[in-house]
Amino acid sequence: GLFQVPASQLVLDTSNTRSFSDRGQFWNVAFKQVIAGVPVEGAQVVFRVSHSNLVQFGVNRAIPASAGVAGITPAISAAEAKANLGTFLGGLLSGDDFLQDGVLTWVQRGTGDEVGYSGPIGAGWQPTLAYRFLFTRAGSLSTWLALVDADSGQVVRFVDANDYVSVLRASVLTEHNCADPANCVPGTAEELPVTMPDAKLT
Length: 202
Prior knowledge:
Layout: E1 10-12, E2 18-20, E3 26-35, E4 38-39, E5 44-50, E6 53-60, H1 78-89, E7 97-110, E8 125-136, E9 143-149, E10 155-160, E11 169-172, E12 192-195
Antiparallel strand pairs: 1-3, 2-3, 3-4, 3-5, 5-6, 7-8, 8-9, 9-10, 11-12
């Protein structure tokens, strides 16, 4: 196909498919890629429609059919992958709370560790079948994400998956926007800094 992704691997991404405007004439239609029941991390095929006309389309981080990954099966079990993760960490603790406990997934990894890439467009990535672990540990604010190669058993990624932000601040003007309400000159008042503790990041 156009994106080198078989239609049978496309699953509607309901969280990112929506209509816009008051009459719903604009649509963003997104699909995830799932190969033999295993999702591809970050893969997305997107179509944008305006007044029933396709105006834009694109693909991101999808694994092309030419990669030949459809028939690959893991060489180790999720339990073995978790044991390898425990060895990597110096041991798992009884208080470790796993939110994702060995979820099989496809990830696209760079073919080399060198800085920069000068090869052909679309190359430079190697599909890797991995077990995904997401867990928290008592006494730590972090949510740890680990990927264990389902073939070699090596931990290929270990990061804090949290998105951090400092206290969100904004400013407001006084009611009159005047330094002296009795003799108002608009714009003479200073903005007052305020915090927004209940702000939701999206």
